[in-house]
């Protein structure tokens, strides 16, 4: 029962991201901002830092600026620009707050490192919005032009013409963000199984891989190579978090536990975006 807030936060965050990806950029941006709120409220408490209100505000503002920036830019090269800006100014603000606290304050180093880590996680969550917009929304397709040609990704070359091994389309089809969210949700469910680590960790990896691959097959919108890779990344992330929680134990405070659950989901955003940038050609 002590792990319930962690699992519930992770699962609900993943499901909300899937729903947001179907609803569009504005809805997904709201979902990402809501995840940043959870992180901002629980992360300073989790890290045991002082000056929690001010540091929570920095974590929240950095995440919101990064998400809004990814939602409104008009160039592909700028999708992660505001994440970098928010990260830089967020970490700078953390140091300024520590200076303003004056000398002789306890746990100054722990507060600085913990709050900076929170800023990093909240700003990388903007990758979900950037991943949804890249590249279909920003390539400037002419009327009647086929978006599938823009979104071709390396796959199983001999079978690339098969419908089941096609690529994402624009508007209504399964997006990479939706696929990643489904993979994370399946991985979280597998991580909740009450079995020992030697069995659970391979199951989590297999769950993420199978969830991603089967979803791509059902929709027929993504290459199997890309889908399988994304599923393995999602499974590995959740498996690592499960192992960490088993070793360290779940946080006692509810907000802290929710922040722990939301953190890997938020961090996956950057992996989704940069995986797209690497594999889409």
SSE diagram, text form:
Layout: H1 4-23, H2 25-47, H3 52-72, H4 81-100, H5 108-124, H6 127-133, H7 147-150, H8 176-191, H9 197-219, H10 224-248, H11 254-279
Helix pairs in contact: 1-2, 1-8, 1-11, 2-3, 2-5, 2-6, 2-11, 3-4, 3-5, 4-5, 6-11, 8-9, 8-10, 8-11, 9-10, 10-11
Structure notes:
The chain crosses the membrane at residues 26-43, 55-73, 79-100, 112-131, 174-193, 200-219, 225-245, 252-274. Residues 1-23 form the signal peptide. Keywords: Membrane, Signal, Transmembrane, Transmembrane helix. Mean pLDDT is 81; it is low at 138-173. This protein starts with a helix and ends with a helix. The radius of gyration is 19 Å and the shape is globular. It has helices at residues 4-23, 25-47, 52-72, 81-100, 108-124, 127-133, 147-150, 176-191, 197-219, 224-248, 254-279. Helix 1 packs across helix 11 (254-279), helix 3 packs parallel to helix 5 (108-124) and helix 6 runs parallel beside helix 11. It contains eleven helices and no strands. The longest helix is centred in the C-terminal third of the chain and has 26 residues, at 254-279. The chain has 281 residues and is an all-alpha fold. The relative contact order is 0.17. The chain has one domain (4-279).
């Amino acid at each position: 029962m002590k792990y319930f807030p962690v699992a519930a936060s992770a699962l609900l965050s993943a499901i909300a991201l899937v729903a947001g990806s179907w609803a569009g950029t504005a809805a997904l941006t709201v979902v990402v901002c809501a995840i940043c709120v959870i992180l901002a409220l629980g992360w300073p408490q989790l890290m045991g830092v002082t000056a929690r209100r001010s540091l929570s505000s920095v974590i929240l503002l950095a995440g919101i600026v990064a998400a809004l920036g990814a939602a409104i830019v008009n160039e592909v090269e700028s999708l992660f620009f505001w994440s970098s800006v928010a990260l830089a100014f967020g970490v700078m603000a953390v140091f300024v707050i520590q200076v303003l606290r004056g000398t002789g304050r306890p746990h100054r180093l722990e507060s600085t490192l913990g709050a900076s880590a929170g800023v990093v996680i909240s700003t990388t969550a903007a990758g979900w919005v950037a991943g949804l917009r890249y590249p279909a929304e920003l390539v400037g397709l002419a009327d009647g032009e086929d978006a599938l040609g823009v979104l071709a990704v390396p796959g199983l070359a001999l079978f690339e013409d098969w419908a089941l091994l096609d690529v994402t389309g624009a508007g209504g089809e399964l997006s990479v963000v939706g696929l990643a969210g489904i993979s994370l949700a399946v991985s979280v469910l597998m991580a909740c199984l009450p079995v020992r680590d030697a069995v659970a960790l391979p199951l989590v990896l297999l769950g993420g891989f199978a969830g991603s691959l089967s979803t791509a097959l059902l929709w027929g919108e993504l290459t199997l190579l890309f889908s399988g890779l994304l599923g393995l990344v999602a499974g590995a992330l959740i498996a690592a978090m499960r192992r960490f929680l088993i070793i360290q134990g779940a946080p006692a405070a509810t907000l802290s536990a929710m922040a722990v659950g939301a953190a890997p989901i938020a961090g996956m955003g950057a992996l989704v975006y940069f995986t797209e940038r690497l594999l889409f050609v």
